[in-house]
Amino acid sequence: MFAPDKLTIGIFLPLKFYVGHMNDLHGQADIVEMIDQLNFSAVWVRDVPLFDRDFGDAGQLFDPFTYLAYLAARTKNVSLATGSAIFTLRHPIDLAESASSIDVLSGGRLVMGIASGDRPAEFPAYGIDADHRDVRFRETIEFFRNLIRHHSPSIQSSLGQLEGLELLPKPATGDIPLVVTGSSRQTLDWIAEHSDGWLTYPESTADSSGPRKLAQKISAWREKIPGGVFKPHMTNEWIDLVEDVNYPRTPLRGGYVLRTGRAGLIQLLEEWQASGVNHAALGIQFGNRPPAEVIQELGEEVLPLFPTHTGPNPLFSRW
């Protein structure tokens, strides 16, 4: 997914917006197989545990870990990414076992976007104080990493005490990348030091002013990364890709969705790449064309300009 000064493309699920029934998700995994075969870099699944009608977005419906396990069996090479797992709402032991299991089953293809949560109704439903989610987020990350990295960790945390016990399985390569989403109520210095990457909103996508602002944000973050090591930046956008190749970049839904033709999308991706973005996750659920048709056009006409990086083959996954 990631290399300095280069941008790759992933696809956000679901491919169709939930409008009260599951029918629009029928056959989605068939298109995910197509995404894999076309050599997109990643597929992303969202984490929305409970549907809040006032919020108006049910996410991708399936539990993200259950669905990624299913997609791991339906694909061969594409990276499997959460965007984003709400680390404050689940216990780190459960998070670590689910994540490590998917990573092993997929041959090491899991990348975790993680967040502290932004839907107020979810926190009382879980019995968790939303005002302290910044602290819980940091504690969950530390607990999670101790479990997956060490064979017999000694953990003393407000989330639990652990001694002489081991989490199994361990990740396929010994670790799982954790990409912080937005601020997650943390400082930029903390994100620079403790994240494996950063996923932020794209600013305006209808013209070049947004990518310029994004470049400033990315540069400020990278200046704070200890030792100047490379850490990837990601962004995302919901697009309505129309058939007219030259249809101008037009904001919809208050800028939440971008309607554009292929030429405008390519221009935006080029601007993002020049801004320091290393991966673009595109959602097509608000579009009007059949998802398979859009994926085909992206795969044939856009992806060759932003190719997925050559990397090691997935590890053993024939469980």
TrEMBL record:
UniProt-listed Pfam families: Bac_luciferase
Keywords of the record: Flavoprotein, FMN, Monooxygenase, Oxidoreductase
Keyword Nucleus: no
Source taxon at top rank: Bacteria
Residue ranges constituting the Luciferase-like domain according to the UniProt record: 9-206
Keyword Flavoprotein: yes
Any GO molecular function: monooxygenase activity
Protein name stated in the entry: LLM class flavin-dependent oxidoreductase
